[in-house]
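Side project, low priority. Logging it here so it doesn't get lost.
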Amino acid sequence: MLYVHKKSPTPINPWPHLRHGGVNNLGNKDIAAKYLVLFNADIVHREGAWNYVFEFDTRDSLELSPLARLTGSPQAYPNDMNWKQWLGEHTIISAAVRDEILHMPESEAHTGAVITNMRPTQFPGKLLPGQEEHHWTPDDIPDDVLLAFPR
């Protein structure tokens, strides 16, 4: 896995780019993989800025495994991302730094707003075997959850 930190004064919508791939053009010589696939985005709003930690799967191919293809998934992740252009200014970080960013105590962070582990549980439009369709209502959401939507 490759972790990338990006700080932004305005919100970014990473969700349409989950499970999309592109050439590894971030310039890190330590990562020899040819492609990157965005697997997760963690978001923390701290001191007036949005902090994004993007989790990329490093791959030599965008093809899905034979097991994944058995579920009716596409043959490969879409190869439609220019990661360097999409990320702009960013920093490649270690898993330990990622953990520090996400678990900073509220007293130090000056906010309690953290959105984390937003990995999709299914491919768009397809339910996994045994998975039931669920439509969320406001009553289903706990009071201590922060929802953030792009404008």
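Brief comment: Residues 118-124 have pLDDT under 50 and may be disordered.
Revisit when time allows.
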